[in-house]
Amino acid sequence: MVIEITVRNAENGSTLNMEVEPHTTIEDIIEGAAEFWQKEAGAYVLRRGKRLLKGQSTVQDAELKNKDVLELIPDPEGG
Amino acid sequence: MPAKITSWTETTPKERSPPPPERISNHRWFTERMNALYQEMRSELPLYIQKTAEEKMRNHSLAGLAKEQEVMGLMLGGAFTHDGRIYAIVRDVVTTNLDASISSVRFHEESMEGLFDSLDDLDFEYSIVGWYHSHPGMGCFMSETDVGTQQGVFNLPHHSALVLDPLNHELEAYYIHENRVKLRAMGIYWDEYQDPYRG
């Protein structure tokens, strides 16, 4: 069953609404949001509340529900 | 199955006056060229960092120096406009446990939830306006890795990277413009009754 989630961009507060299916992965969601906001997908993580959503897990694994709000957080690397 | 975007909202920076000149200063760790840029742009700085946030970054870098490690965190605040120009304010910083060495740093994957706790503890609606990290004893510059991070993540006009060298007591800020690293003018500001020497 398709559900709708919201992804908040922690860099400016803008949001995306997305339709996802049970087998959509967290990586798919990150890639969709990163492409829309012209970001490097590999440098981001998604959280729901205080929980980090693992990239390989699916919407079903992560127990995402309709109308859930996720936040896209930078995971930078310095050298 | 890819996620399908159905709608979106956008935000634009709000109009707000920057901190007043009497509550702005340069930083004692500024390099010579940062000081020169500060003097040149003092009346219209693109980046203001709250004194307490600056202290946290500086002390974090000094703690990393003792362990011979880089440190890193996110700068939080907001982007605003005034008189047609955009500027950013850093009100606080957050970090968590790090995977770090003398020449590399990133958040420890298993400690991301500590970062989220810190974000949730903030008493204002935050935007991530940049990041900071240290180069212990290496001087201030943007490495190839740093540039990649700046281009891939912190690529909005008001985004900045702050680099501290806690051994040499140096601090510089940067941004990317047309794929080139530029020095970012910045100032430290304090709230009206925050001056510990007042009176």
Descriptive notes:
The complex is a heterodimer of chains A (79) and B (199). Chain A is 14% helix and 37% strand. In chain A, strand 1 and strand 2 form a beta hairpin. With 79 residues, chain A is mainly beta. Chain B has one domain: Cytidine Deaminase, domain 2 (3-Layer(aba) Sandwich). In chain B, the strands form two sheets. In chain B, strands 2, 3, 4, 5, 6, 9, 10, 11, 12 and 13 form a ten-stranded mixed β-sheet that branches. In chain B, strands 7-8 form a two-stranded antiparallel sheet. In chain B, helix 4 links the parallel strand 9 and strand 10. Chain B starts with a strand and ends in a 10-residue tail after the last strand. The relative contact order of chain B is 0.21. At the A-B interface, strand 2, helix 1, strand 3 and strand 6 of A face strand 1, strand 5, strand 8, helix 3 and strand 9 of B.
Return the CATH architecture of chain B.
3-Layer(aba) Sandwich
Biggest sheet descriptor of chain A: 5 strands, mixed
Q: Main beta sheet of chain B, described?
A: 10 strands, mixed
Supply the number of helical segments of chain B: 4
Outline type of chain B? globular
Domain count of chain A: 1
> Secondary-structure element sequence of chain B?
EEEHEHEEEEHEHEEEE
Assign the CATH superfamily of chain B.
Cytidine Deaminase, domain 2
Put simply, the count of helices of chain A is 1
State the oligomer: heterodimer
Structural class, from helix and strand content of chain B?
alpha/beta
Query: pLDDT average of chain A, as an integer?
Result: 97
Percent helix of chain B: 10-25%
